[in-house]
Structures are given as C-alpha cells and as structure tokens.
Design brief:
217 residues, 8 helices, three-stranded antiparallel β-sheet, alpha+beta
C-alpha cells in the first residue's frame, strides 16, 4: 500500500482496501489555499468532494453577496451536496471555500456512480454523509429560529473551536457578522460582553476561548 492509500485508509477506515485503491487511482487531489472558493452557486457539479486535510466552509450567498454559514467539513468528511448533485447532474445551490489550507479529493461522476453499485461501504458512507450534514443543518436552523444572537454567537464559536481543534481561533468581526447574518456592530457588542464575563479573550484577529459553557450574565 502506497503513502496515498495509507492516508486515505487513515481518514476513511470504513472503506474497503479495494475501494481505497480506486480512490487513489481515479481521484484528483487538489491543494486549495486558505480563503479560496472552489464551489460556486449555479456551478455544474461533476465530482464528489472529500476532505483529506484542512477545513472547508459550506455557505450560501444572496444576490448582494451576503454570506450565510451552513456547516464545516473536516478531514474524513464528504460534501453530501456534491455527492447528490454529481449523481443527478445538477448545479450547486451552495458555495464552498477553504477555511485554512486544505487538501481535497475530487471523485469523477463515473466513479461515484460505479461505486454506488459496486461497494456497499461507499453507499453507507454516502448515506452517513447525508445524515450528518442534515443534522448539522438542523442545528444551525434551530439556533436561527429559536435562539437569540448571543446564544448563536456562542454556538458558532464552539463549532469553530471544535473543528479547528484549538482554543485560539482566527476571528474577523466582518466575517462572523456575515456568517450569522448580523451586523459588525452587534457582533462587536456581544464579543465585548463575552469578554467581560470571562468566557473569551480577544484581540484584533484572534479569539482565545476560556469557557463557553458558562451562562452569560
């Protein structure tokens, strides 16, 4: 087994060796720079996308360029929407970009279709991806529909902390305001409140999480 197959096996242990070998042979590995978009709304999707290294942000964008954050994809995960769109030969309704420098595996449509029939583990992986992304979307919708903005901000920071695996999170007031469909002024005020209550410390471009599990005063 070569180094690429070992890497894939480490991130996708549920897939059988024969499928891993085909992924290594037929997949297209691409390095995506931090902040670089690689899926656009209305784009024809002809490949399924798997995350090998890094972190990917999935979001929607309105006609005025405002972003609405949906969820993240970390290593070992697949973009369920690209799985679905590639099989049905549909265009994308979302956008995606690398949150940090990332390595992605693009699987061509022909292989996605063939593996659905050939490998039961690929079917289970695809169905699991649909379920996980749906559950993440439900979490996001719940916080939009039923939580106030300070609770949404804490949820957002917790998700950043979890996905990046660190308590020190890169932070942009403008970007967070876009992700949460709010204003920079509101986010700034709430971040000040979190800081005063000892939940975080923040500088111009970084947030250090102290304890986001305590209630706001």
């Amino acid at each position: 087994m070569d180094s690429i197959e070992k890497l894939l096996s480490a991130h996708f242990p549920q897939l059988e060796p024969e499928l891993i070998a085909e992924m290594s042979e037929k997949g297209d590995f691409r390095e995506i720079k931090e902040g670089e978009p690689f899926i656009h709304s209305g784009q024809n999707i002809r490949s399924a996308i798997l995350v090998i290294e890094g972190l990917v942000k999935i979001y929607r964008e309105d006609d005025e360029g405002h972003e609405f954050f949906m969820y993240y994809l970390d290593p070992g995960k697949a973009c369920a929407l690209t799985l679905l769109c590639s099989l049905r030969q549909e265009t994308s309704a979302v956008m995606a970009k690398a949150e940090i420098n990332s390595t992605l595996l693009f699987i061509p449509l022909q292989s996605v279709d063939s593996w659905m029939r050939k490998y039961s583990s690929w079917n289970q992986f695809a169905l699991g991806s649909y379920r996980e992304r749906f559950e993440e979307l439900l979490q996001t919708i719940d916080h939009i529909a039923f939580r106030n903005m300070d609770a949404r901000l804490v949820f957002y920071l917790k998700r950043q902390q979890e996905k990046m695996g660190t308590d020190s999170i890169p932070f942009s007031f403008t970007q967070v305001a876009q992700d949460l469909n709010s204003s920079r002024e509101v986010i700034s005020r709430l971040m000040k409140k979190l800081s005063e209550n000892g939940l975080i410390r923040y500088t111009r471009n970084m947030v250090e999480v102290i304890d986001l599990n305590r209630n706001l005063v």
